[in-house]
Amino acid sequence: MASRPLSKGQQNFIWISIACVDFLKLPLKDILSNQIKPTDLYQRINSSPTNRKDYLRKEQENICFIQPPGQPDYNDFDVTLLYTLIRNLCSVSLNPTSLNPTRGWGKVPDSSHMRIGDDIERLRLMRNKFAHANSAGIPDAEFQVLWNDLKSVIQRIQTFMNSMGNNVNYEQKLVDIERNDFGYGDLQKYKLFLEATLNQLKEERIKDEQEISITGADRVVWGEKTCFETDLKQKETFRWAISWQRVRGSVTNQIDISKQKYSDSTRTQLVIHSVCKDDEGEYQAVLARESNGNKRKIESNAIFLHVMGERPDFEVWGVTTEMESITIHYEVKNNAPGVKDIKWIKNGEGLDFETQKYVGGGLSDSFLRITSPNEADKGTYSCTLTNAVGFTSKDVTFEIPKATIATEPKVYLGYTTQITSEISSTLPLSKYKWQKSFDGNEFHCIEINERKYHGTNNLENPLLVISNTTSDDILYYRLSVWNIIGGCVSNTVYLNVIGNPPNITCSHETCFESRSVKLIAKVYLYDSCHAIQKVVWTVNDDEIDQHGFGVKFSKVSVDSPCLTIHNVNYLNAGSYKLTAMNAVGSITSDAIELNIPEVILAKFDEKEDGTQWVTVTVKSIPEPFLVQWRKKEEKSDMFQPINVIAKEFEGSSCSFPHPVLVIKESEQLENFTFQIKIQNFIGTCEKTIQDLLNLVPGAMKSENDSSDDINDGSLNETYNDEVAGIKFAILFDDLADHFPEEKFQKLKDLIQSSKKVNDIKSLNEARSARDCFRILDSENLFTKSDVLFVQFLLKRTGCEELEHNCVEYAKGHRALGFYEKQPEDGFKHVYFHVTGDLSNFNKEKRRNIRETVAAMVGCKTDRVSLNGYRHSESFIAIVSIEVIYVGKLVAINKQDRYRFVRLDIDYFTVDFIKVILKISQESQRVDYHEHVQKTEQRTTIPPLERTYVPFRVDASNRVLHKIEDEESMETSLKRQRVDYHEHVKKTEQHTIIPPYESTFIPSKVRVDTSTGFLHKMADEESMKSSLKLPFHKRFEYSAHLKSSFTVTTSRIEHISCLKPNRLWFTTDTRIKEIDEDGHLLRELSVNWTHAGNHTLSKAGDLLFKNNNDIYMLSSSGEVRDLHIHANEFSCIHSSRLNGDIFVSEENSIKRFSDKGVKLQTISTLKFTNGSQIVTENINGDILTIVGGQVVAFKSDGQHKFTCPGEHYWSDFFPLRLCNDTFGHILLRNIIHTCVHLLDINGHLLAKLLIHKSYNGLDSKALCVDEKNNLYIGCENKIYVYTYLSDTAITEHDDTVIDSEIPCDI
């Protein structure tokens, strides 16, 4: 007969029964076993300070207190025994605080108590609760609470046990219980278990029953009365005092039953009137007596009193504005005790419900309606509900809306733009209107349905969209919004529509070998909003048909706008222009005229010795391939070339663009006809000197008769004497009258220390500034044509206003003085440092500097002006040139440097860039294979010779020492280097020997012949298979000092080098460039320098950081802001693969394009300490140093490897890193003075000893150029090493290298 089916409640009862009878033993048994092994239980009970009879019943003692060699079986222990042993024996073992309950054993833990002892108490209480369970069934709601509590406790105990080294899964056992279905027979069985458990608890209670206990309700409704009564085992308690106490947390309060709150209470009964939340807590009765000086105290059981009831529950769940009214919807919940009163107020005053203004608002209502709302109804409405517990208030505020609108910072012509809004309103919006105005005062509404405008129907945050913006949209805009009680107007925004057509700069190059001319055009934008759409070249205003002319003209495009004209001849003469177009408009460049050469007389000088100097200016596009001076006699028809190096024409030259002819005797002009002949691909120009002189009226006059074309701020040997005398007298008098008396002594000291005044006696007797100025006038140090010295004195004494008077006088009368005029729009000042005295800077020298600058940058002389002079060691000549030419000046070549040096100019500055013209030895280079004495020379190993290095390595300090004898040298060589061609057989494995002795771990390495990379071999099979591969290059690793530079700095922070002939390094607040001979070329002044603050692009452009922004100094001299912002310690690196820019920050590495667009962010957060140096390997791996580790990421940002990692090295802290062209990773170790060489996957190949031992902290800089020369910066020196020697081997040679990697570093 089938078993009767069980109800859901009965099934719940069985599941709880199984959990409490069978399952709860498992975690308790495991906890006891973890703390006390069965073999140790007897000794632990025996040595316990508590007598076992105080906590173990006889039957419990029989199964657990077994004398060795016998031992108990924990599987026989029930829940009660397991709990008793844990409580009395384990609470003091190992870590007491982790096992003891928060409130102590036998107490009910709070929900916030999460110690393991608290969960053991919860298991005990759960078992006790099971004993009082209703066998008829457990309701689902109650079961779910019990079961979820059990799961939470079991999950925490499981986590604890697994953390202690156990492997348990209690959660699965609970799942298995839930999966079982039980029948009626199971129900009867577990009823018996229930009865047995209840009897057991009674027995325990009898044994553990205290002499006093209390009874009473543990849950009381707020406001009602409750009572606790005592139950005494001993009836004769008249000698005992009985008191009552309440426990809240760790605080125990004695109850004074004489208070009104506890009226009607007796010594055996506690009565609490009008129970409230303050009465919650544990209540106990306490027996106390004193006998013979001994105090005894017995506490009863504790009952925790829960006060049931809450303040009124009131919820406002919506506000609506239908039917020309505002309705507040609310709900009063029926919780105990009941609500007695409801009250509505507005802004602190009660509402008048007698009028029709307010409807509803009572306890039985669910709304309060405000009829016919207007602006007077704005404010805060409060509803207060009151019951026996207290009161609850809710506020609702109604205000007119507030609106704020914003537009994009830049609105570009032809683009679609949006004006967004943020609306703050406590009531739903009823309508809105966008408005516009021409003057910001009178506004008109915008019709959203117009073709020009569209928006959204969203009343929350309206949006105005303006499509295809034009100049007509440059207006003021605002937004008006309303809700049911009123409206407001937003702020006003001004829409500034911007846009620019392209910009064009043009130049040209001539290639004589291919008879071609390249018209170089640079098309750029002031902003990147309107992309360049098309470029077109024209000749004589006709568009060039690139398809019709075959290969005559090169193809041009937006990306490559330069035009090359091949096989140039006279047919290609004409005016060439480039037109570039974008959405804003088009722009046409200045014309580049291809024509026969043009010759202009630049200068005709007749010197005192009778020699005549003729200087001409040749203008020629293409550049001429022939410039020749010629002459013929009067009766001859043939011109003969002149030998310009002959003595009779000494000083002559045929240099383009300023050939010079020197005629020693003036009679030659009468007896000979002199001609200059210039040829280019277009044609020939021939001009005689007589023709050139006739073209220039007054050309034969002396220079002093010609006017000076320099701007009014220039110096001149002449001055306006008619006015200057009066003006100078006024200046003299003003300076004498207004010079501060307190600075007079300083003025005298400056004059005397200058050693310029001869009459020292008069100077000592001077009693005023007027006396001093009179002495300066008498010694021609302060005259109407020279105020330089007085300007200096006024500047040093801090008399700025008086110095300004001198400047104005000098400018107005062209006297000698220092000043600086502001450059015109589109021009920039360049500051040339001239050695010498400003008083000797005559008109010829000024003209020379202007002509030299103009010739160098390729502009007309009248586009270059002198705008003033500054103080310096000598003086600064301030030259103003157009901004577009500044780059050419910064990228000056060696030949043009010499042209400036001949003008006594040793350097110039533009913004923060200083360009050195007069070559000085910034660093002292030592070339070791040329400058070291033969007896002291350190020999490097050529790749194909068996010459050995006469050094040994001191293993204690890792320093190279010279080996004096051959025997020592041979011994040293055996452990330092192996020459593979001579010492290794073809079938043998190749060994790399590190340059010092240590313990080695053999590791197979193979060479990838496609890339030259070295890879670790996983097994012997893969090693053998790799032997069949052809091998093109093999490396031997040995550092050889090639050269060194001593620079004028105390510390080198960083080095960037692409080609061996150029090197950038940082020192202090300077980034300096030197050439291969150590000559200082340029230096950049930046706000702060550190490692990694500059890098070189694959094109050789310098990327550097200044004021936390990244700039690029191109090879053409242009400085460009890349619009990439970095933080103070960010390091940067330019990819040699694609030009991307990497920026390391505190917790990430960011990748940008060369245009400044962010492409990728790689998080380094989990490696801590922030990333430092960043670089990119040739396979795209991104490497950085993070917290003393080298971390590599794949190009997609995924972590690849970390070193040192597991099985890596100790005593290793990398400070700098770089890569070479073969993918090797070079690391500079701060701990030891060597460079670690790793393969592309981070495996150690070798360690390279550096030239000398020095402090690792002072040897930070590390760099490798494209020729794989290694640069190391140490204090004030840069060492250059070679470290790769390669040997060509045959196609069938071995390709496996057995790399012995040292265990310790």
Automatic annotation (TrEMBL):
Record's protein name: Ig-like domain-containing protein
A single BP term in Gene Ontology: homophilic cell adhesion via plasma membrane adhesion molecules
Annotated PROSITE patterns: IG_LIKE, PROKAR_LIPOPROTEIN
SMART domains assigned: IG
Organism in which the protein naturally occurs: Magallana gigas (Pacific oyster)
Any single Gene Ontology cellular-component annotation: neuronal cell body
Residue span, Ig-like domain: 312-397
UniProt keyword GTP-binding present: no
Pfam families in alphabetical order: HEPN_DZIP3
Keyword match Signal: yes
Keywords (A to Z) from UniProt: Disulfide bond, Signal
A GO molecular-function descriptor: axon guidance receptor activity
